[in-house]
Design brief:
Layout lengths: L5 H16 L5 H7 L9 H18 L1 H4 L4 H21 L3 H34 L2 H11 L4 H15 L5 H15 L4 H20 L6 H8 L12 H15 L21 H22 L3 H21 L14 H6 L3 H20 L1 H12 L2 H11 L5 H11 L5 H14 L8 H9 L6 H6 L1 H18 L5
Helix pairs in contact: 1-5, 3-5, 3-16, 5-6, 5-16, 6-14, 6-16, 7-9, 8-9, 8-10, 9-10, 9-21, 10-12, 10-20, 11-19, 11-20, 12-23, 13-14, 16-19, 17-19, 18-20, 19-20, 20-23
Length: 468
């Protein structure tokens, strides 16, 4: 028997793919009808929806099966895009699908590089002893638990205006555990306060929140326009904190039996971080460059300074001051979260390319009230990550005024505080804190957080009456 010709095998393989992907065995009829390549009512579209649901369910139940949330999202996004690209290739339009994939990949790369630089600076400051020094300082001041509750919440709010909220959650969580030993109630209440403060602070600045960063990167709102969210975000943080204040223990923790030791270069690294943030803002405002350009330049400055610290080490100096490696700080970035966002953004991009997001946008922003739609989207961020939701809305390209973009940014940013599964800071604290803070405890304070949510929305309307 003569061997099968290679071309016959390839054609047979393509035929099997066509049978799997096309709803009908009539390839000629489907090729004619596929001129517009509408996949919304096609097997590929249904497959994309199913894979999205499965990936998100697995990711959201991370605590149950202990599988990192990035794994199902990466695999799910890959399978969806492979199905789309195979379908388009069979119809002679491979470049169309590949270009769409590249656009979504570029959007992710900008986000990833921005967050990597931010986290690297925070890891470096932590390695130099800045945050451990802050913990010792707070304990030595002999503040009461109620005072510490407000101080730590305010620090979470402040830090998250220029650092990603998920990083702030980890840093403040470590401080709370050290300060509140043997006080699980204080730890739990302060964790809720950290979540609300970090999400509110990250919402009023594009440097700290994922959803605000997306809006800034797309040039929908300029940097200074986010200042309109300052008062609403403060209200969102203060109202729940004021209600929880009365449940915080009155006692005062014991002073730390330690002295503050900062490693060489710590203060200069804080200065470099400030320079980096300033470059990021000015490059965008004055030169209209993408925000990531200033952050990458700042990473270059940090790398050169790390080299200076290494070559200027003196003989006989303390061993703790030696061997600073900037790449260890880069390696310490939360890659699981970053890769989760890769999968989420690519999945959302695929659903938009198929056409589902366009249909949703038509319903949300045309058939029902725009304000109601933005509030509902914000409330849904209690269940789905706000960065993913914002990227989905941006992919819909809704034609709404800037006031509505401010409203959407506010509701998406602070809506994640309603539940412990709604934002990165809360998820990290759930994994970090083993006693006191849990999903049920956070849920107990949801009415107070919801009150702050609606009062902040009302404040935005009162302060900007002509923007809607």
């Amino acid at each position: 028997m003569s061997p099968r010709h290679p071309l016959i095998s390839i054609r047979y393989f393509h035929f099997l793919i066509a049978v799997f992907l096309l709803p009908s065995l009539s390839f000629a009829e489907e090729a004619t009808a596929a001129a517009q390549l509408d996949l919304k009512h096609h097997f590929v579209g249904y497959l994309a929806i199913a894979l999205t649901a499965v990936a998100y369910i697995i990711a959201m139940t991370e605590d149950v099966h202990e599988m990192k949330k990035s794994k199902p999202m990466i695999l799910g996004s890959a399978l969806i895009w492979f199905a789309i690209c195979i379908y388009y290739t069979l119809h002679g339009q491979a470049r169309v699908a590949a270009t769409a994939f590249e656009v979504n990949l570029t959007a992710y790369v900008e986000l990833m590089l921005f967050i990597v630089v931010s986290m690297t600076y925070l890891n470096t400051l932590s390695e130099r002893g800045i945050f451990n020094g802050l913990r010792i300082y707070l304990l030595n001041k002999q503040y009461s638990y109620r005072q510490l509750f407000w101080i730590i919440g305010a620090l979470a709010f402040f830090f998250s205006t220029f650092v990603s909220s998920l990083t702030v959650g980890l840093l403040m969580g470590a401080i709370v555990l050290a300060v509140g030993k043997n006080q699980p109630k204080f730890i739990a209440l302060t964790c809720v306060n950290i979540v609300v403060g970090a999400n509110a602070g990250g919402t009023m600045s594009p440097l700290g929140g994922i959803s605000t960063l997306f809006v800034w990167q797309k040039n929908i709102l300029h940097f200074t326009e986010f200042f309109a969210l300052t008062v609403p975000c403060l209200i969102n943080f203060i109202i729940p904190a004021a209600i929880m204040h009365f449940a915080v223990p009155r006692e005062t923790p014991h002073a730390a039996q330690e002295t503050i030791i900062l490693k060489r270069g710590s203060k200069r690294i804080i200065f470099l971080f400030g320079v980096t943030l300033l470059m990021t803002v000015l490059a965008n405002i004055l030169l209209e460059m993408q925000p990531v350009s200033g952050m990458i330049a700042g990473l270059g400055l940090l790398q050169f300074f790390a080299y200076y610290l290494m070559v200027s080490e003196k003989e006989g100096c303390d061993e703790s001051q030696k061997g600073f490696d900037i790449y260890k700080c880069i390696a310490g970035v939360d890659w699981d979260t970053l890769l989760f966002f890769y999968g989420a953004m690519l999945i959302v991009g695929a659903l938009d390319f198929i056409g589902y997001l366009g249909q949703i946008a038509h319903y949300l922003f045309i058939e029902i009230n725009v304000t109601l739609a933005n509030v509902l989207i914000g409330l849904s961020s209690a269940f789905v990550d706000n960065g993913t939701l914002m990227f989905a809305v941006l992919s819909m390209h809704p034609d709404i005024p800037k006031g509505q973009w401010l409203l959407l940014t506010l509701t998406l940013g602070v809506g994640g505080s309603l539940l412990a599964i709604g934002s990165a800071p809360a998820l990290h604290l759930l994994g970090l804190v083993k006693e006191g803070y849990n999903f049920t405890f956070h849920l107990r304070w949801m009415p107070a957080i919801l009150l702050g949510f609606f009062l902040s929305v009302g404040a935005l309307f009162l302060l900007n009456p002509g923007s809607f």
